[in-house]
Design brief:
With 203 residues, the protein is α+β, with helices and mostly antiparallel strands. It has 2 domains: 128 residues, Ribosomal Protein S5, domain 2 (2-Layer Sandwich); 66 residues, Alpha-Beta Plaits (2-Layer Sandwich), CATH 3.30.70.240. It contains 5 helices and 11 strands. It has a 5-stranded antiparallel sheet with strand order 2-3-6-4-5, sandwiched between helices. It has a 4-stranded antiparallel sheet with strand order 9-10-8-11, with helices on one face. A hairpin with a 4-residue loop joins strand 9 and strand 10. Helix 2 packs parallel to helix 3. 31% of the residues are buried.
Length: 203
């Protein structure tokens, strides 16, 4: 069975963890683009302007195809990867977690750093409301006025979500459908040779 759902955090949360005087503050945000990631990073840096490190990880898109980690001067793989690990273990996407560190005067060592960044990120996630969303595909149907009843009957039969319509000259309708159900729903449209239907990428 193809899994066509994905999970996001609903809104911004924070998590605070302290270890041997060092303070780790995690900020989690729902984000949908690298531009948003940059903007949120700048916000955190302004808010926590005297912190020593701003380490982060993010994952984008329903298929989790874009991701990145940054240790921001901490020893390699002691910050970004533990943060990413928490995102992945909670199966989240469209999320940025920034963990800022205030140094407490005592070195924590590799294992101490990994534990601290991981725990701060975990606390931020545990405070978040998690939303489960459905991957949807968009299809465009072109037809003439006489086919209007046929098209609207199929829309009603399958309870389709209409994204856009344009009935000015020829008729055009765009609908969204759950990815796993798309094939069975598109087939009846294809059988009617008076219409044309094509898959389009959502804008």
């Amino acid at each position: 069975m193809f899994d066509d759902t994905y999970k996001e955090v609903k809104s911004h949360t924070t998590g605070i963890y302290k270890e041997k005087g060092s303070k780790f503050i995690a900020y989690s945000y729902p984000v949908y683009s690298e531009q948003e990631v940059k903007k949120k990073l700048e916000e955190v840096k302004k808010l926590e302007y005297s912190a020593r490190h701003y380490c982060y990880a993010y994952v984008l898109h329903a298929d989790k195809s874009a991701w990145r980690v940054n240790d921001d001067g901490e020893p390699s793989s002691t910050a970004g990867n533990p943060i990413l690990g928490q995102i992945q273990s909670n199966d989240l996407t469209n999320i940025l977690i920034v963990v800022v560190r205030y140094f407490g005067g005592v070195k924590l060592g590799v294992s101490g750093l990994i534990r601290s960044y991981k725990t701060a990120a975990a606390i931020a996630i545990s405070d978040a409301k998690i939303l489960t969303k459905t991957i949807k595909e968009h299809y465009e149907v072109d037809f003439k006025y006489p086919q209007m009843n046929d098209v609207m009957r199929l829309v009603k039969e399958f309870d389709l979500e209409i994204v856009n319509t344009d009935f000015r000259i020829d008729c055009n309708l765009i609908f969204a459908v759950q990815k796993s159900k798309a094939d069975s729903i598109v087939e009846p449209f294809k059988k009617n040779h008076e219409l044309s239907i094509k898959y389009i990428k959502p804008i």
